[in-house]
Each structure stands twice: as structure tokens, then as C-alpha cells.
Amino acid sequence: MSIVTVRDLVKEYPAFRLNSVSFSLEAGRISGFIGRNGAGKTTTIKSMLNLVHPDSGEIYFFDKPLSEYETEIKKRIGYSTGTVNWYPRKKIRDIAEVVKCFYDTWDEEAYRRYLAMFRLDEDKTPLELSEGMKVKCNLLLALSHKAEILILDEPTSGLDPFSRDELLELFIELKKTGVAIFFSTHIISDIEKCADDIIYISGGKIIAAMPKADFANRFSINGENLEQTFLRLERGAQND
């Protein structure tokens, strides 16, 4: 079941164009969003959340247009960037108290469970956290209101290998409950470990949006892993 549809998304800047980006996301599947810096990943994600206003195109969540149902839709979405950059001097418990006011689906039990899982101290402020713990703090809030889809921009950024593995295992458990997970990353091995689908963007265009196995069958050669395939494709794109 497609719960997100992005269709012919265009956003033009003086030196960059997001060019007719289209793909869909399904419930209970993990989609890895790959592309080099400047390919259009963050612009796409911000457009999906109406943080950037596209010039044209359509974005649907749960068969409803984002343009008409933004408030309702956002209550069902969990969003996290790689870092926390708001309320840096407020305690985590105080930030949570503010955030929970916006969600009638806030799950205090889930909040406590993830707080323990991520080993976060409620009495600390984001300013006191390492970069990896800031990522966990942001995910804590995104996961605590029963989101049906998680949209994550570089969620494993700054995490040590053990914490990254923990997070990827959590993604796999969440998808079993029907949650859709869409995450961008430069760490291709993370996608190899947990993604069901790959959405590959290069130069503002979607090159592929398909199951991981189909991506490997179509693009990989000579026993390459996904990272080797991605690097080869990008070198080819540079030479075009």
C-alpha cells in the first residue's frame, strides 16, 4: 500500500534544478534515499514536508494532498534531521513537554522506552550532548507519537558503529508494525543492511526507484556491492 506519492516535483534554484522527481513509499518498507552532496536529497525531503515550496508537482500522504491537509498529515509523520538545533539550552524533558502538546497520539510509554534504549538523560540539554546523542534525541521525539511514516535526513550521522547497528535494527522492528521508513544517507552499507527499496537521485533527477534486489540486478556488475555500484554510477555521471 502506497502511503506517500511524490509526482513530478520541480524546484528551481539559480544553480540547481530538482527535475520532475517522482517515487512512492509503501507501508512496512524501508526506503534508502541515496545520492551525492548536492544531488537534491534534502530539497526533496524538505519539499515533502512543505519546508521548501516546490515550483510544481504533487505530494500525497495517505491519499491526501499535502497542500490541503498539511496539519492532519504532519501529526502522522515523524521527521528527524541529523542534528538538533532548537532549544539548545532546554532540558530534554522540557523539550518533550512542548513537543507532546502538538500530538494527540503522543505515547508516554514509547517515549520512556526509547529514552532508556538510547541512554538519554532527560536532565541534559542538547548543548551538552555529543553529535551522536543529538541524533538520538531527535529520533526519540520523532518516534514517540506513533508516527506511521518516518522521514529521516541522515539519521545515522555522527553515530558510532554500534549505535548505528542498534538504530538499523530498530528500523527493522518498526517496519514489522507497518511503519514506513524513508531515510537519506551517505553510508551505503546502512542501506545494504536494512533497506527494502532504493531511491537514487543524481543531478536533481531520479535515476532509480525500485526494490534493492532489482537495483542490484539492473546496475551492479562483476559482484559489486552497493557502494561500489553507486561510486561507479556517480563517476559515470560526472563524466557525462
Strand content: 25-35%
User: Approximately how much helix is present in the residues?
Assistant: 25-40%
Average pLDDT for all residues? 91
Secondary-structure-based class equals: alpha/beta
**CATH C-level name of the largest domain:** Alpha Beta
Distance linking N and C termini: 37 Å
- Order of secondary-structure elements: EEEHEEHEHHHEHEHEEHH
Name the shape in a single word: globular
Number of domains: 2
Query: Could you tell me the radius of gyration in angstroms?
Result: 18 Å
CATH architectural type of the largest domain: 3-Layer(aba) Sandwich
Could you characterize the architecture of this molecule?
Strands 6-7-8-3-9-10 form a six-stranded mixed sheet, sandwiched between helices. A four-stranded antiparallel sheet has the order 2-1-4-5. Helices cover 39% and strands 26% of the residues. It has helices spanning 41-48, 66-74, 92-100, 108-117, 131-143, 161-176, 188-194, 212-219, 226-239; strands at residues 2-13, 16-26, 30-34, 56-61, 64-65, 77-80, 149-153, 180-184, 197-202, 205-211. It folds into two domains: 2-76 and 148-239, P-loop containing nucleotide triphosphate hydrolases (Rossmann fold); 83-147, no CATH class. It is built from nine helices and ten strands. The protein has 240 residues and is an alpha/beta fold.
Topology diagram in text:
Elements: E1 2-13, E2 16-26, E3 30-34, H1 41-48, E4 56-61, E5 64-65, H2 66-74, E6 77-80, H3 92-100, H4 108-117, H5 131-143, E7 149-153, H6 161-176, E8 180-184, H7 188-194, E9 197-202, E10 205-211, H8 212-219, H9 226-239
Parallel strand pairs: 3-8, 3-9, 6-7, 7-8
Antiparallel strand pairs: 1-2, 1-4, 4-5, 9-10
Helix pairs in contact: 4-5
